[in-house]
Structures are given as C-alpha cells and as structure tokens.
Structure prediction request, 394 residues.
Amino acid sequence: MRISDRAQRIEPFYVMEVAKAAQALASQVAHTDRPMIFLNIGEPDFTAPALVQAAASSAIESGATQYTQALGMQPLRERISSWYAARFQVHVPASRIVVTAGASAALQLACLALINRDDEILTPDPSYPCNRHFVSAADGTAVLLPTTAAERFQLTADKVAAAWTEKTRGVLLASPSNPTGTSIHPDELRRIHRVVQARGGITLVDEIYLGLSHDDAYGHSALAISDDIISINSFSKYFNMTGWRLGWLVVPESVVPVIERLAQNLFICPSTIAQHAALACFEPEMLAIYEQRRAEFKARRDFFIPALNELGLSVPVMPDGAFYAWADCTALCQRLGLKDSWEFAFAAMHQAHVAITPGRDFGQAETAQFVRFSTASSMGELQTAIARLRHWLN
Prediction:
C-alpha cells in the first residue's frame, strides 16, 4: 500500500521509542529492589483533583455527554477568559478562545488554518518535535534555527530577521520550552513579534507550561503583547489532566470562523465530559491546589538541577518553568566511552534503572550531547534517581 509523502515526512517520535524500551525493562525489574524510575515522560505525577473528577462523574450521571459547539462550551471559554485576567492581568475575550481536543488539536488547527504548502516556519533548535511535525502535516516546512545557552535556547529578534526569506510565513515558539524549561523574556518576544509583524507573518506561541512558571520575570502570556499573537494552551500540565485531552487556542477574532469550520469537520467538538470537568478547575479551592503543586514542582527543580550539576550532567541554563532539565552529558560520555546521549540514556536505563530521554528528538544542532530529564515525578523518586546515578557514575 502506498504511503503518502506527508506521512513519510513525519519522523519517529523517539521519546516514545525510548519509553517502550524502558517499559520492557521495567517489567523485568519490577519486583527487584531497584524498579525502574521514569524521568523520561513529561507527565505530572499529580492527577486531576477530587472536585474535577467529581464534575466529570456528575456530567456522566446526568447525561450531559452529547456534542457541544465546535468552539467549546461557552461557560468554559468564559472561565478561561477570567483566568487570564486574574492570573496574567491580560484581557482575552471568550470570543477569541477555542476549546480543543488537547494542545495537539490546537496546533493542528492553527497550522491548517494559516500555513500553505511550502511555507516555512522558523522554530528554535532544540524544541519539541511534534510542534514542527504539525507544520509538516500542513505541508509546510519547519526551519530549525540553532540556539545557544546564552540565548536561553530561544530565538531572538535578530536571529529571526536574519533567517527570514520570501518563503517564511512566521515563527513557532514555546515559552516555557520543552525540552529546556526556559522562557523567552517578554521584551525579546515583543521584539520578535515586531519583526514578524513588519513582514506580514504569524507568531504562534506554545504556552502549555505557562501556568508552571517559577520566575516572575518570565511568567507572562504572549497575549499581553498583541491581539495578533496566536497562543496554544492545555489542561494537561498545570491542571494535571493529561489523558483527558483538552486544550485551547487563542486567535484573532477574524480567524475564529476559519478555526470553527476546520474544527467542525475534523473533530466535531472536544470531549464533553472533559469540558465539564475542566469547569471545576477554576474554582478557588482548585486553583489553590494547583498553586501548591506548582510550588512543589519548583522545589523539585531546586533540588534536582544542582544535584545533576554535581554529577557532571551540566545544566547550562536554570529552567524557569515547566518540569524539565536539559543536561549536557558530553564529559560523562567521554569518560564512560559512550558515543552520544542516545547511548548514555540506554546506559542509564540498564545500569541505574533510570529512564531519561536522549536529545535526538529535539533538533539537529548539538542535541546528540544533551539528555532531558523530567522532574514531574515525586521528590522521593528524584532523590532515589540521583542516588542511583551517583552510584553508577562513581
């Protein structure tokens, strides 16, 4: 059977390939004194709080499970709008908010609405691989621009201006970023958007980790800069609803009908049950729980990053958000006789029973020397992982 060129362009998601290998080994060591510790997947160990779960159960029991509007339930769009005002002091009308089947659907809708065949989208290297694959799926081309630690592994306005060509359609950024946990300073993001605006382009910003910002200097939504910026967000990370597959998209008013038409045809609507559950996320007692959990993620970061540095896994930029550590394993690979981060990740898996993610997925420039740790696990697991890595490396 002939496979489409579009599908052929989508590279394997190596994060999940490594995860499968880790799961296979985990089943062999599950009953030993060293079961596998998973620091490879970006999924909070916290789950939806009881009130959110109860809202889902209530929706099921009351029969509130039929289709909603393609744009999402109006009360949920209004709750999200109010959250922007209270948390980020930015006015985002509910009419610009589209509830989606996860941030993945939001990115797909945005790319299909705005990218034509052979359009080029500038994105940082390293960056989350699926983001550039959404560009490819829309028949565009993601152009990876290498970034440095001095740039916080983010694009700059000068770099965007220098890379812009006749084929460039815009930029796709992430703040905070996966895999680095670093954000773009609001002033630099404003400069980037000016460059893009001057050329008639589009600025898309993945903000799914914005709720998990740990530094007031960076914890600002790109939506405060301009109504022309398109923001992707999610209930997965800050709201701990990964498997519920619910997110949202903020677009200019003029783009909403286009997104609605695409959503009607491609998705019908987001999960009705998940939407009813998400309404409860914005109750004051739930927001207090999420803030407690955000503080816990910060405490884990503050323990884990210095510990990695002491092991020789250098983290060149302290992450200011999310729950990742982007660590350089070059020196340790040389000492251990390992070729790159891919071999280092599998060695850690087999020798220390700690699953981590090699840099291969996240770009081209120097990613072979980096590994990504997820600090979304409990403090106890992080402490045990460090102890095991220390024993192996020493």
